[in-house]
Write a structure and sequence with these properties.
two-stranded parallel sheet, two-stranded antiparallel ribbon
Length: about 120
């Protein structure tokens, strides 16, 4: 491993010491490459490999769940039984459709102005 690929031992140790079961690492990123090339965005393949050594259950990436060709939202549930990953088939619509629906807002602009700071009525 060259100098650019060294991971901070204290951070890796702290992650391992704080891992719970069930435990997941979720990367909100484009698909993680299998190898690194100059200019790749994080998380890098080296970091993912380390995460896979630490995480008790699974490393999940938002843009390759369950596949990079058809990503669906990652869903976790909190029930009386505790915290759980809902699984690869839990989402009912692709990630792009879910984000568009969630971020589209109301059909019409608000009737009254909303603001913060001085002079806002």
């Amino acid at each position: 491993m060259d100098d650019d690929e060294k991971l901070r031992a204290d951070i890796v140790r702290d992650m391992g010491n704080s891992a719970l079961s069930p435990g997941f690492i979720v990367a909100s990123s484009h698909p993680v490459p299998s190898r690194n090339k100059p200019g790749d965005n994080p998380p890098h393949a080296v970091a993912k490999a380390q995460y896979l050594r630490i995480v008790p259950n699974e490393f999940l990436c938002t843009h390759q769940h369950p596949s990079k060709h058809k990503p669906y939202p990652i869903i976790f549930e909190v029930t009386d039984a505790g915290f759980a990953y809902a699984g690869k088939q839990a989402a009912t619509e692709p990630l792009d459709a879910a984000l568009t629906a969630a971020g589209s807002g109301a059909a019409a602009a608000p009737a009254t102005a909303v603001g913060f700071g001085r002079g806002v009525k």
